[in-house]
Amino acid sequence: MPSHDRGDKMNWTYALTQHILVPRTECKLIIVGETVEGQPFCHEDRVFLEEADLDAFSVSLEFELVNPLDHLQRISFIEFSFQDQGIVYYSFVSFKELITENSSCVLKLLSPQELYSYQNRRHHRRPLPSSTPITCRVVGARQRFYDETPLFEGTMLEISRSGTSMITGQRLVQSLMLEISFSLPDVQEPITLSGEVRSSIPLSSESFRVGIEFHDVPPQILDLIDIYCEQTSS
């Protein structure tokens, strides 16, 4: 299996197999080129991922009145980007096909091999074994804490000192505050933290990929996570 570079890039295959890029993920395109009138063309737009595989992917661009690409004659470059757990990943991609409908169009693009981060990652983030469980409960919203709700479970995907991601059957929304408990492989001490939901992407009607940013973590727990990530980084 291709590895996920812990530095400033992410392998495209990793993004697909770890469900980071799934249908309806919100992304951004920057298209630079030349109009039919010979003028510079520059367009930035939020788009939604339709489908993706190792060779190609497609995104849908929606518009109300006029297709902004109608006057595009030549493409100089296209930058594709998305955000995952507060980190912006991007790559320059090649155009393959354009399909226009009434109030939207679908751009088919060639998949890049690597995605680069806009800034160097602050902390190591390491994939976890597929069977790593996590127990959660909702305890508030927008960093304000209220009455606790019932426990639910998930499976952790990866972790750094700044956050984690998981697969769960519970529908969650951004800004919810969670209390989470888990044990890292080969680390005896169980860990309980609070975190904020930063993203929640449906994988199916009963499965969601949730990104969590940690809050108010004791220094000794941060050190424990750092040691785990560094020891397993090779």
UniProtKB/TrEMBL annotation:
It comes from Paenibacillus lutrae. Gene3D superfamilies: predicted glycosyltransferase like domains (2.40.10.220). This is PilZ domain-containing protein. It comes from the Bacteria. Residues 119-229 form the PilZ domain. It holds the Pfam family PilZ. GO terms for molecular function: cyclic-di-GMP binding.
